[in-house]
Amino acid sequence: MKIAFIGLGNMGGGMAANLVKAGHHVRAFDLSEDALARAKEAGCETFSNIRDAVRDVEAVVTMLPNGAIVKSVYTDDVIGHTPHAATLIDCSTIDVATAREVADAAHAEGYKMVDAPVSGGIAAANAGTLTFMVGGEIHAFEAAEPILQAMGKAVIHAGGIGNGQAAKICNNMLLAIHMIGTCEAFQMAQKLGLDPQTFYDISSVSSGQNWSMTSYCPVAGVGPTTPADNGYQGGFATALMLKDLKLAMEAAQASGASTPLGRHAEELYDAFAKENGELDFSAIIKTL
Ligand code: NAD
To answer: Whose CA is nearest to atom 34 of ligand 1?
Structure first.
């Protein structure tokens, strides 16, 4: 299949390479020359502008930093310049309202479009083991699914357009909350004289068990190997967690949802990110 891929950064670079490995012809564009050079090495055909990249393709995949960029890329250079039978797939994490607005513009021109944000970081993007949460009409989902399968381990239909983004920010708000809760519990356990490994052995098989504890433990030397064992380098950057929490709080306000713990998590990550945006988000344990 001929697929245009726009946004070949930390995530998009590996995703585009996996489409090539799956036998697709990938027409790549990024503003960064370095990203384009890496895409060429991975077997993509590279272009110096979006309109040339999307000409004659059957699908467009975007993996871009934010909603404003996604909107300008689609409205300026994708919609109306891509064949109308093509499937448009935005994998970026952006706000629900912009995802729906861009899809409305695409639908008005007869395109199929889905929002398909991902769970899993750079390692999963490279390994082709991302989880995609997909919003869009069923015929658009069915057209996007085989393309997404080539880049991930799970592709889940979340409902109508924008619901992929809704699932992503609700999931990451919950992740931030249980990470902070897990950090608090380990810190208090230690202050009360409990060895962290002993607390882990008890809580990981008791009702406090959760993913932040047993799959992503914020304490070095406890549980599986995690960014905590590597000085909180790598993993999921605090700045990206904060981005997702801000999107979640915008969505909470717009929808009238009550999210007091989500709001508090956003405040804590906002303060922590000022000096530590590059560190893995589990490093917030250092502030407690
Ligand atoms: P990144 O900054 O590494 O990559 C973004 C790429 O987009 C860059 O190469 C940049 O040059 C390019 N770009 C920016 N404006 C452009 C334009 N107008 N036209 C073409 N290219 C343009 O970011 P990333 O880490 O790859 O993240 C991409 C998206 O994935 C974000 O929405 C992020 O929230 C989401 N995400 C990231 C992670 C992660 O762990 N990095 C995990 C899940 C989701």
So the answer is: 93
